[in-house]
Design brief:
heterodimer; A: 544 residues; mainly alpha; 22 helices; B: 341 residues; alpha/beta; Rossmann fold; Alpha-Beta Plaits; 2 domains; 6-stranded mixed β-sheet; 14 strands; 26% strand; binds adenosine-5'-diphosphate; binds magnesium ion; ABC-2 family transporter protein (chain A)
């Protein structure tokens, strides 16, 4: 790090060398949090301890391995096994220590009350999160480079190829960064003391789970045949996984930023966009799979996954405040097209609901088109799939909408957190969905299946039955009409309320703010205007 | 120690000169803040001008911190608005933040960081670059007298030094408005005097300073104006003299008259006192009777002497007769007493 010497040396260094100047301006551009955390961790005992432990572990392993294998080192290929041992050692600091220290570093900002100091500074939430992730990344690099000689050693021992090594290291690094980002979200979301205690225990548990999961995955990769490892399917699989990882990381990263953002600012547009992008990739992959000849039934399963995803997202979004702050309203779209498209990305619980329903409905439409347009037969009749799709979307709109209305109503009576709203929505849907199953378990005598009044509320009961065509046709029609009608009504009520949000017009930016913008961003420096490359005299301080 | 001119140039750029169109450095307009059913801030409005030190006085739990946090964009008003240099804390928090230095009533330490690194971090956090940053750190350390301690870990600093470091952190980006929450709390008298001196110099450099305390005397000398807040409500705003003016003519007198059956006689003196023209609010206490004497400043001593003579003349055995002019504490107690319930 560029630990600049304080004032005394600067006075005489009036004309620093080019390198110095370069180092300085590079140091200036570094994220302040990154600079600070690096300075801190260089002095911290915890980091030194882990680093030394890692080195000791490696040396012991290496010496032990050489001693055990002995002179036969020239004949046996012990590389694979040794690599695994190194991996077990390396993954601990990467997957457990680094994410946990990222989590700790943000949550200790809450505990030591420095969070407020960061918040009143000019640091943006994005810079804070980037700084924390950056310092996690730096730790990863340090741990990796400490182990690099050992890894090279395993390659020399034979028995393991570069692809495997690369894959394993990539898993560990990605897991480490991803879990660090998750840790930041958890730290940003929990501000109360007791919640922090619970969360740090829970997060540590999660990290150890991830650690064992990663080791299991590594063991599996080590067991792969070379044929599979280098096959095309394997690359597709990994590309899909990478895509899933990248888009999920985008969502988690945006969530961390949103959670550290000032409450009156726009905290949701970024998150909605991230979720939307993830969905777009999901659709592309499913589409690709269908085009490549996968059975179309998979499409319906994908729709169910998407519906669950959007239900969770929708339940979170309906926790947003219906009134927009002036600051947010200044950035609302003004054009008709802009309003039609971008309003649903603007914060607000009503717009969140409409956004979620629109997404699921669009996906459903794609499912129906896919089902009718592919020639490859699946297990279910296209008509049944279409009906089940309609039913699923209706349930989705109805549950999310009713839940939102309930949360909205409760909000008027008491204060409720976003998490509270989310839990109410989820419990409500689970209750309605599980009702027939519960009744069936409780009483043998009630023939639940005959009672539409009992089963009608349950998507998990009805959707599979419609899909398989198990319901009598009159029951099926009644069900479709009833659920569809409820969904329509709920949707319209919510839409009307969302309309109120959308009618909150953009407000003009005050003159004072515009003036300040101009002051902060002076006229762009005039470009070269003639072929000789002269520039007009720059305005001097005095003449301004 | 530097002169004020250096303070102004703390970060190597001239102090922001507010434009004519911009609002006052600090303005609160009908700010309310509810925490559940607690009305922590109740309709607070005031303005602080450039170069002014504004004292914000009130007992613990009065709502000082809450309103200061609102002004510093760390909290939002339930209704009303506050602005810094004409920028609303709700709508333009970023602009407010770049103009404002907030010093909370806690330290906010980082582990494994020394004084210079601590200031360097905040200078970076406020977007200061290169030479500008070095100059800002240098002059801040100079101003707060921390230059000898540059390499000292901040955990090892004394309370007074920590407070200086906090002040340094608050002024590092040369804000035009400074909000200091109970900066003098827990300081020894010497450190307190030094702090007052630094604050005065900052004000002379043109900064608007809002400073809170639960002790009026702590601030009386440096504040141009004070506001007294209790239970979330402002109950007086003005210069210390103006506020003292409300109780100008009052002198508190403690009186004890002797007798075997002390309590009996104390009660006997009360009706007598109550009938007296200059006497107000007679209260029986454990140790005797306390009352206020209302009189013009010039006749104060004469009136007192006259009253004592009358008391003795009326046959009361006076064993104690102490008079006390208004102290700032009295002003504070007087102003806060009984107004808000
Ligand atoms: N975050 C909060 N949640 C609930 N009540 C609060 C919160 N912050 C402050 N209060 C309450 O608001 C009132 C004013 O507190 P505060 O502004 O800290 O007073 P002061 O700084 O004048 O001592 C107190 O009654 C306090 O209990
Ligand atoms: Mg306080």
């Amino acid at each position: 790090m560029t630990t600049l010497p304080p004032q005394n040396e600067m006075a005489d260094a009036a004309q620093p060398g080019r390198l110095n100047r370069w180092l300085e301006s590079a140091g200036d551009r570094l994220n302040p949090i990154l600079v600070k955390e690096t300075r801190q961790s260089l002095k911290s005992r915890q980091f030194t301890l882990w680093f030394v432990l890692l080195l000791i572990g490696c040396w012991v392993t290496t010496i032990g391995a050489i001693a055990m294998v002995g002179p036969s080192i020239y004949y046996v290929s012990a590389g694979g096994y040794l690599l695994y041992v190194y991996y077990v050692i390396l993954a601990l600091p990467l997957v457990v220590v680094t994410p946990f220290s990222a989590y700790r570093s943000l949550s200790s900002e809450h505990e030591d009350n420095t969070r407020d100091l960061l918040e009143v500074s000019s640091l943006s939430p994005r810079q804070v999160i980037n700084g924390k992730l950056g310092s996690a990344l730096l730790q990863i690099v340090i741990y990796l480079s400490a182990l690099a000689p050992c890894i090279a050693f395993t390659y020399l021992l034979r028995g393991v190829d570069l692809t495997t090594i690369g894959l394993l290291l990539a898993y560990a690094v990605l897991a480490s960064i991803g879990l660090s980002a998750v840790g930041l979200v958890i730290a940003a979301a929990t501000r109360q003391k007791y919640a922090q205690v619970v969360m740090s225990v829970g997060f540590a548990g999660l990290l150890f789970l991830a650690y064992s999961g990663l080791l299991a995955a590594a063991a599996a990769v080590r067991g792969w045949e070379s044929r599979w490892l280098h096959s095309e399917e394997n690359w597709w699989l990994h590309l899909a996984l990478l895509c899933l990882y990248a888009t999920s990381f985008g969502v988690v990263y945006t969530a961390a930023i949103s959670l550290t953002t000032f409450t009156a600012a726009n905290r949701s547009t970024g998150l909605r966009k991230a979720a939307f992008i993830q969905q777009a990739f999901f659709v592309a992959w499913i589409g690709g799979a269908v085009a490549a000849g996968a059975p179309y039934d998979g499409v319906f399963v994908a729709l169910v996954v998407a519906a669950v995803y959007w239900f969770a997202a929708g339940a979170l979004m309906s926790g947003e405040a219906p009134l927009l702050s002036l600051r947010v309203r200044r950035s609302l779209p003004t054009s008709l097209l802009g309003r039609a498209v971008r309003s649903w990305f603007s914060p607000g619980s009503g717009s969140g609901y409409v956004f979620a329903v629109c997404n699921v409905a669009t996906l459903a439409l794609m499912v129906v088109i896919a089902v009718y347009s592919t020639a490859i037969p699946g297990n279910f009749a296209p008509a049944q799939t279409a009906k089940a799709t309609f039913l699923l979307v209706s349930y989705f709109a109805a549950y999310l909408g009713l839940g939102r209305l309930a949360v909205d109503g409760l909000r008027r009576v008491t204060d409720m957190s976003t998490l509270g709203g989310f839990l109410i929505q989820v419990l409500f849907a689970l209750f309605g969905s599980g009702l027939p199953f519960v009744i069936r378990t409780l009483s043998e005598r009630v023939r639940v299946a005959d009672w539409l009044a009992i089963t009608a509320s349950s998507p998990s009961w009805n959707v599979p039955r419609v899909l398989n065509g198990e319901l009598p046709s009159d029951v099926e029609i009644t069900l479709l009409i009833a659920v569809g009608a409820v969904a329509m009504a709920v949707f319209l009520v919510n839409l009307a309320m969302a309309g109120y949000e959308a009618r909150q017009m953009r407000v003009a930016i005050p003159k004072r703010v515009l003036e300040d913008d101009r002051e902060l961003q002076p006229e762009p420096e005039s470009r070269v205007t003639n072929p000789w490359g002269d520039r007009p005299e720059p305005a001097t301080e005095a003449s301004r | 120690m530097t002169t004020n001119a250096t303070v102004t140039a703390a970060s190597g750029r001239p102090l922001r000169t507010p434009k004519a169109s911009s609002g006052p450095p600090i303005e609160l307009r009908h700010v309310h803040r509810w925490f559940g059913s607690t009305h922590a801030v109740n309709d607070v409005s005031f303005i602080v001008e450039k170069g002014e030190v504004f004292g914000y006085i009130g007992p613990n739990g009065a709502g000082k911190t809450t309103s200061m946090r609102i002004l510093s964009t760390l909290d939002e008003p339930s209704s009303g608005d506050a602005s810094v240099d004409g920028f609303s804390v709700i709508d333009d928090p970023d602009r407010v933040r770049s103009r404002l230095g907030f010093m909370p009533d806690y330290f906010g330490a980082y582990q494994n960081v020394n004084v210079w690194e601590y200031l360097d971090f905040f200078a970076r956090a406020y977007g200061l670059r290169g030479t500008e940053r070095r100059r800002a750190i240098e002059s801040t350390m100079d101003f707060t007298g921390l230059d000898e301690l540059a390499r000292k870990p901040i955990d090892g600093l004394s309370k007074g030094m920590k407070q200086r470091l906090c002040l340094g952190r608050t002024m590092i980006h040369d804000p035009s408005v400074m909000v200091l929450d109970e900066p003098a709390a827990g300081l020894d008298p010497r450190a307190r005097i030094e702090l007052r001196e630094m604050i005065s110099r900052l004000a002379e450099a043109g900064k608007a300073i809002l400073i809170s305390s639960h002790i009026l005397t702590e601030l009386a000398e440096i504040c141009d104006r004070v506001a007294i807040i209790e239970r979330g409500q402002l109950i007086a705003v003005g210069t210390v003299d103006e506020i003292s003016g409300c109780v100008e003519e009052e002198i508190t007198v403690r009186l004890r008259v002797t007798n075997d059956r002390a309590s009996h006689d104390q009660t006997a003196v009360i009706p007598w006192l109550s009938r007296h023209a200059h006497v107000k609010t007679v209260v029986a206490t454990k140790e005797g009777v306390t009352f206020h004497l209302v009189t013009e400043q010039p006749q104060r001593d004469a009136t007192l002497a006259g009253l004592l003579a009358e008391l003795i003349g009326a046959g009361f055995g006076v064993t104690e007769f102490t008079s006390r002019g208004k102290s700032l504490e009295d002003v504070f107690l007087h102003v806060t007493k009984g107004r808000v319930q």
